[in-house]
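Give me a protein, keeping tokens residue-aligned:
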Amino acid sequence: MVCVAAPAYAANEQELLERVDQLARELEAVKAELNQIKALQPKVAAASATAAVETAAKKEPATVLTSYGEINLNVPTQGSSNTQADLRRFIIGFQHRFNPKTKLVTELEVEHAVSSAGDRGEVAVEQAFVERELTSSLALRGGLMLIPIGLLNENHEPTAYFGVERNFVETAIIPSTLREIGAQGVLSFGNGYTLQGGVSTGPNITKWDFAGTDGQESPLRSVHQEGQLAAARDPSFFGALNWRGVPGLQIGAAAIGGKAPHGAAGLPTAGYRLWDAPSRSSPGRWHLSAHYARGSFDKTDAPTAPTNGQHTLAPASFGGNSF
């Protein structure tokens, strides 16, 4: 009995060993396939993200028209005879997406209803730039752009502020809407930070009216160029950093500066600066904001010859705050 059973046991053992070897080979093959799948996962995820962006872009219309208007009624508490109604502004916006990563953004604004040589109205191009997304977090813009400064300069619709008119800081200190021709980069971080920076045309101090009062009301508004035959010898540089890591909260700082004479004869190489620190929060039903802005001109007493005794000079500094 023992002699008969021994060969059968040996045969079963040999078969078992062969099956174990086969399972080991199959396991190695499965491991190799898993490693290949893991190596492909980042590429598959990137391809899926790109496909999702392209699909979303396809669902949106390539061309979008927008518009809004603002009618103001001012009723003085004293002197009701000065009550005034005004179609303050009317805006038509046009956007066109050439492909999922490239778009054109434009806005045309009409102020005070009627624009002619004898009226106070004005027709102006407020924005006209092309934006190209290089990555999911970096974009480049070029053209006539709103400078990223203040709480309202880039987002200035009537629903973005309280009151009939924009506040003092966003009109007299920062001449909203402050816009220049140039190029900028927009970098968005995943932790709520957004960094913007670029180069553009800037104010032209030769436009200063030494005998007028416009400069006293808003120094930069009286000399900014808005892309209209803009002197461009002296570039300006700007930058802005904002944090929006909590819904309804914004904390940031921005600045723009450069030279302003553009090589005009008789004017020194004077510079200008404008910087601000805006913040706002919307806890529950409350809407809170605090904003400080300050600007300055260098060598403001130099171009005094054309004034003929007038002394409405560019201020050495100007600033203000709003809450």
